[in-house]
Every structure is written in structure tokens, then in C-alpha cells.
Design brief:
A: alpha+beta, B: mainly alpha, Rna Polymerase Sigma Factor, Chain: A, Arc Repressor Mutant, subunit A
Chain lengths: 525, 187
């Protein structure tokens, strides 16, 4: 300290020599000032925890993008993402323990071109269980696939087979129930977005071929080339395991295990929800812990919501949004929420026919994931993102799904310029729309509107590691302008075509000429 | 120090997260103290310190050691985060007003001098925020004027003037009795 004081005094004298006359007092002042330094230290545990938290997260590397070669809209999109990435956690959401509750962030790590290998691999979501085009098994729905028709099997036979199968499974809804919400198929309100009608006789629905029509030119000249790969895996499993090792369990001694990694865990909270965390895939889901609330809590007889008492959309969205905020689920990377209205068509149709139809007591609110300012869509055409199920009777959330860690790698891939091929795929309704058709099939044209650039989620099975690569590919989305008036149109509201050259090239080789889509649906009447 | 930090920067830019850990070790206590001097609240200071390092970690790819040193970069982050905090808590206190340091651990000498130290701190509190910052960084954080200048956004010469004036001001403000008392304890 003495030396420091001398140095400080020397500095002062150099600047103002007259101060030397007050050396004794100045010395004391400086010494007192030095002594006035508060002795504050951070707890080493906190320091280490923060360090571990920091280093367990992916680190953003210097970008390899050349922004000047990218289309202006793409630059704007990236800029928007950058704003999201740099957002500082708000003080309102400040956590009691910072190292645990840090706001989840989005990261992007640029890789060299083609870093994810060939995109012409085995595409899990587009080809799952579906053989090459023209094969007899090439059926559209899971129900059809499960029937496993043989070559030349007439649709009537297939339908009979389905009717037999569905009679035991009692399929009652046109709309798929939400995950973890499989309800016994009886005529009462469904908790999962489905509807039910009061009959049990299987009816035959004539096979219908939907031909998606877009007759204008498709501009493929300025497509983005960035493909995203979501990074799975988390290093936090190891640190969690080390913490668990100290917990005394009645059935076994964890401290005896030399080391390990927590791959997934679940817990029930005091709000009455179960949370399941998958650290391998970096996903989470929350759902009602019915062991605490009971099954009748959300479906009280006599309190069913009807078309007349259906709540306002704003209220439903606010309920979903508040829930995500409460659970610290970051929505920065997600777009404006959309309520799933697929149930409305069948309900209105049933009501018009004078049948008893129920409004679903749970509706799904989807927060679409955004990449480069573009929404992400599934291959089927629906938006992909966080899905929140809201119970209309209680106006409470019954589940939140598709909550994922948003850490990505990016790599450039060549996009298609083959307009004819894209048009052909559009006409059949997308890559995953291939169906067997026969002479009895009725053809219905579905008009499509102007396409928009989006991203589509696309899985490729990686045989070496037995894992799926979860990719996000630039795509064109053609909205359905007007849903067909046919009785059993299945609410496909857009056609999504991924644009990566390797994917489409493979399809053009594999698929050749493809029959138009046909969708016979099993119904219970 | 410069060489070591430069090596760390290179390693971090190559994706070596442990190198960032080493940099963190070098700065975490300093940043915590800096934030503490401006928030006088242990928990809040740690929260804000965490934010500082979170942001530094997220934005490190933007840090260019050729354009400035890491010290001034991370102190600038800290300063902005503190300012953001006070902006969102206008009703309680402003950034420039915040000064009320207290000791968590007092040495024997400090306990003996606690009344006098409290008086000195009161005088420090009368200084404007920039002067106080220069004083704290120079005396308590042992920073060079060059570093201080980069953090507070003034020239080196300007910082020296501020420091010199603040010492003279404190010399004039602190009563002679206090000096005599201090000298009695020390001599």
C-alpha cells in the first residue's frame, strides 16, 4: 500500500507540483481512501456455479456469413435474430438464483457449406414407413399404413379392413388429439382439440384425390441457402448427476456410482403440473398432473363450452402466453400465436346436418418458431412451434409441448432452380403426399395462393449414430385459398415444398411420376 | 498480462470455452466489486454481475482485441447493465446517486477506524458520479488512467485532472480533527 501511495502522490505532483506542500495531509487522505474500500467478496460457490452455467452453453463463433451476397430480406431476417440473441434478461424476470434461472438464449454457429452431410439421406419425417413411389404400401394415413394393404387391394377392401380395425380402436375424431391426451373414444368432449359425434357405425368415405393448383410462375432466383441444424445434447446432464449423487434415496445409494449423466427427468410442481425434460434432445413438455387435480377437474359435466359460449381468442392466447411466461419459456424466437381452428369445420358440418357435435374443451395455441424472420412449417403444412393446450372450461393450460432448446448450427446448401419439379410436387400436395389411386377416385382441385419463403422442419436419419438430424430447410409455402367443399377434406391449409437441391433431386429420381393424393378416412357414424 | 489475455482471446475465438473460463476467473471479482460500488446491494450486485458475464459470453464473438482491451469492454457492459437497472427502477434511485458502500468483512484496523471510514465514505458520496468512478477505479481497483479513460469515455489527461481535484476537494472537506484522530491511531 505504501508503494501505491507513493506512486499516487508522484502522479499528483507531476500534474500539480504545488500539492507537494500538503504531502502529509494528502498521504493521510489517500490512505484513508484506500482503507475505505469496502471488503466485499462473492461466495466461491456462486462464482463456480455461474462459470459452469456459462461454459455449459454453446458459444457463438465469429460469423462466416457474407452478408453482402445474401438477399436483402435475408439480411433483415438475420439482423432481427441478432437482436433477439443479444437481448439482456429483463430485471422483472430476474431470478432468485441467477445461475439457475438465466433466460434461455438462442445461438447460431456458422459451419462451412455442406457441413451436415448429404440431405438426400433417409428423411425420417417425409418418408417414415413409406416405400418408394408406386409401391402398394404407399398409403397416406397411419391408419391405412397399419392395415398394410397388398398390391391390387381395392379401396373398398382397405376400407373394410380399416373399419374392422377402428371398431376396436374406436376412432371418433377427424382431428388428431394433442400429445398425451388419448381419451377413450366415447361421445363426450375431447381434451385435445378433437371433436366427437354421437354414432358408432363406420361409414365408407369415397377416395378423393386432391390436386393442388398453382398456375403462375414460381420465382426460384433468390432463395436463401442457409440450412439450420438444431443442436441436441446438453452438458448439463453431467453436472446434474453430480448434484444428485448427494441425495439420499431409500432404494439405492447414488453416491456409489462413479459418474454419469442425467438424460431426462420429470417432476411434479406445486401448481399441479408435471414437467418432463429431455436433455438428450433438449426438449421439454409440461402437462397437468391429474393425480393432483383429478380427471374431472377440466371436464365438469354441465359446464361444457359450446359454440355460443366459446371464449374470445384474445383470452385464450393470453392464457397460453401467461403460462409460458410463468414457466420462464422464452418466446423471443417465436412469432404471433395462432389458435388451431381445424375442429371448426367438422363441428359446423355436423351441426348443419343436425347431428350432435361437441366443441373441443381444449384448444391448441401454436407459437410458430421463426428463423431469419420466417415461420417454420411442418411438411404437412401446419406451423411448427410451441404448442399450448388451453382448457376452455377453466381457462387454464393443460399442457405445453414442443418446447425445445434453440441452439443451431448453420450451413449453406444449394437450392433448386427446377421450377417444373417444384410445380409437380406442389400439385401432389408436398413431398409426403403420395397415394394409390384407382378409377373410382374423385378428383378435387384445390387452388393455391402466392407462395411465401418459409422454413420447414426436416429429419434425416443418421445411420452411423442411430439418431435423427433435425434440420430446417428453406421452403416455399403455398396457402390454400379456399378449402374444398367436399365432406371430408382434412384441413390441410397449405402446401410446403423444401427447396434444397439434394432433397428434390433425390425425389425426382426415386419418385418419377406420382399418383395424385387420395385420402379415404375412417369415420364413425 | 496482455500476452496471456491475448492468447485467451485467440483460444476463445477458436471455440475454446475453457479459455473464457480463465478470463472469467480474472475478472469476476473485479466486476462484482465495480457493480457493488454502484448498487450497494450484495444480491443485486451478483445478479447484475451474472448478467454482465452472460452478455459477455454471448457477445464475445463481437469483441475485437485490436480495437480495444477486454477490460474496458467488459466494464462498459457492466456500466450499461447498471444503467439499465437504474432506468427500470427510476422510482428508487438513479445511477449517479447510488453510493452507500458498506463492509462485509472488516479488518481489526477498520473496526477501530470505522467511524472515521464512515465519514470518509460520506465525503466520497458527495462527489459527482464520474469523479467518484475515477477515484474508485484508481484507488480501489488499481487501474491505470488509460484503462479508466476507456471505461468512462474521457481522455487520460481528463481523468488525471478529475482525480487530482477530487483528492484536493476531499483534503479540504475532511475535518482536521479527523486527521488528528487518524494520525493518533497510526503513529
Amino acid at each position: 500500500m505504501k508503494q501505491t501511495i507513493e506512486e499516487l502522490l508522484a502522479e499528483l505532483y507531476a500534474f500539480d507540483p504545488e500539492l507537494k506542500n500538503q504531502e502529509r495531509e494528502l498521504k493521510i487522505v489517500i490512505e484513508k481512501l484506500l482503507l475505505a474500500k469496502p471488503q466485499v467478496f462473492v461466495d466461491e460457490t456462486l462464482v463456480n456455479q455461474l462459470k459452469n452455467t456459462l461454459l455449459s452453453q454453446p458459444m457463438k463463433q465469429k460469423s462466416q456469413f457474407n452478408f453482402f451476397t445474401v438477399a436483402p430480406w435475408a439480411v433483415a431476417g438475420v439482423a432481427m435474430i441478432a437482436v433477439v440473441v443479444t437481448a439482456v434478461p429483463s430485471l422483472q424476470n430476474r431470478v432468485r438464483t441467477v445461475f439457475v434461472d438465466t433466460k434461455p438464449s438462442t445461438t447460431f454457429i456458422a459451419r462451412e457449406s455442406g457441413a451436415f452431410g448429404s440431405l438426400a439421406g433417409i428423411a425420417s419425417n417425409y418418408e417414415s414407413g413409406v416405400p418408394a413411389l408406386g409401391a402398394p404400401e404407399a398409403m397416406s394415413s397411419k391408419a391405412l399404413s397399419s392395415v398394410a394393404p397388398t398390391e391390387g387391394m381395392a379401396y373398398r377392401e382397405v376400407a373394410d379392413a380399416i373399419a374392422v380395425e377402428t371398431s376396436s380402436n374406436a376412432v371418433t375424431s377427424l382431428v388428431a388429439p394433442a400429445p398425451a391426451m388419448t381419451e377413450p373414444a366415447i361421445s363426450r368432449p375431447q381434451s385435445g382439440g378433437g371433436i366427437a359425434v354421437d354414432s358408432k357405425m363406420a361409414i365408407w368415405i369415397p377416395p378423393t384425390q386432391y390436386r393442388y393448383v398453382y398456375d403462375k410462375e414460381i420465382d426460384l432466383s433468390q432463395l436463401p441457402t442457409t440450412v439450420y441444424r438444431r443442436i441436441a445434447g446438453s452438458s448439463q446432464g453431467t453436472s446434474l448427476f453430480s448434484r444428485l449423487a448427494g441425495v439420499a434415496l431409500p432404494m439405492m445409494k447414488l453416491s456409489g456410482i462413479p459418474g454419469g449423466t442425467v438424460s431426462n427427468f420429470s417432476f411434479s410442481d406445486d401448481n399441479g403440473y408435471m414437467t418432463t425434460i429431455d436433455l438428450i434432445n433438449n426438449t421439454a413438455s409440461l402437462y397437468v398432473d391429474y393425480s393432483k387435480k383429478g380427471w374431472e377437474y377440466y371436464n365438469t359435466p354441465g359446464k361444457e363450452v359450446t359454440m355460443e359460449t366459446y371464449p374470445q381468442d384474445d383470452l385464450i392466447i393470453a392464457t397460453a402466453s401467461n403460462f409460458l411466461d410463468q414457466y420462464g419459456i422464452n418466446r423471443d424466437q417465436y412469432g404471433a400465436p395462432v389458435i388451431d381452428t381445424a375442429w371448426r369445420g367438422p363441428v359446423i358440418l355436423a351441426m348443419e346436418r343436425g347431428e350432435t357435435a361437441y366443441v373441443p374443451q381444449d384448444v391448441n395455441v401454436r407459437f410458430p418458431l421463426q428463423l431469419e424472420g420466417k415461420s417454420v412449417y411442418e411438411s404437412w403444412g401446419n406451423a411448427y412451434g410451441i404448442n399450448v393446450s388451453v382448457n376452455l372450461q377453466r381457462m387454464e393450460v393443460t399442457g405445453a409441448y414442443e418446447i425445445v432448446g434453440l441452439n443451431f448450427e448453420t450451413s449453406d446448401y444449394e437450392m433448386t432452380t427446377d421450377q417444373a419439379l417444384v410445380k409437380k410436387l406442389v400439385e401432389q400436395g408436398g413431398l409426403d403426399q403420395w397415394y394409390y389411386a384407382d378409377a373410382s377416385t374423385q378428383v378435387v382441385d384445390v387452388k393455391l395462393g402466392e407462395p411465401a419463403l418459409v422454413y420447414t422442419r426436416y429429419y434425416i436419419w443418421e445411420q452411423e449414430t442411430n439418431t435423427n438430424k433435425e434440420l430446417y430447410i428453406p421452403a416455399l409455402r403455398f396457402p390454400v385459398l379456399e378449402a374444398p367443399k367436399t365432406e371430408y377434406y382434412y384441413n390441410k391449409d397449405s402446401v410446403v415444398i423444401p427447396l434444397a437441391q439434394e432433397i428434390l433431386k433425390q425425389r425426382s429420381v426415386d419418385n418419377g411420376v406420382r399418383p395424385m393424393p387420395v385420402e379415404p378416412m375412417p369415420m364413425v357414424k | 498480462m496482455e500476452t496471456t489475455e491475448q492468447q485467451l482471446f485467440t483460444r476463445i475465438h477458436d471455440g475454446d470455452k475453457d479459455a473464457f473460463g480463465a478470463l472469467y476467473d480474472l475478472y469476476v471479482q473485479k466486476i462484482y466489486r465495480f457493480v457493488y460500488y454502484k448498487t450497494f446491494n450484495k444480491e443485486l450486485a451478483w445478479d447484475l454481475t451474472s448478467d454482465v458475464f452472460m452478455k459477455a459470453y454471448e457477445k464475445f464473438h463481437q469483441f475485437n482485441s485490436e480495437k480495444g482491451n477486454f477490460s474496458s469492454w467488459i466494464y462498459a457492459i457492466a456500466k450499461n447493465i447498471i444503467i439499465d437497472h437504474y432506468r427500470s427502477h427510476k422510482e428508487t434511485q438513479s445511477y449517479s446517486d447510488a453510493f452507500d458502500v458498506s463492509d462485509e468483512y472488516m479488518t481489526k484496523q477498520k473496526i477501530e477506524m470505522s467511524v472515521d471510514i464512515a465519514a470518509v465514505r460520506e465525503h466520497i458520496a458527495t462527489l459527482d458520479s464520474v469523479t467518484r468512478e475515477v477515484l474508485m477505479l484508481r484507488l480501489w481497483e488499481d487501474m491505470s488512467y488509460k484503462e479508466i479513460a476507456e471505461i468512462i469515455g474521457k481522455t487520460e489527461a481528463n481523468c488525471k485532472v478529475i482525480f487530482s481535484r477530487s483528492i484536493k476537494k476531499l483534503r479540504a472537506q475532511i475535518p482536521l480533527t479527523s486527521f488528528l484522530l487518524f494520525i493518533t491511531f497510526h503513529l
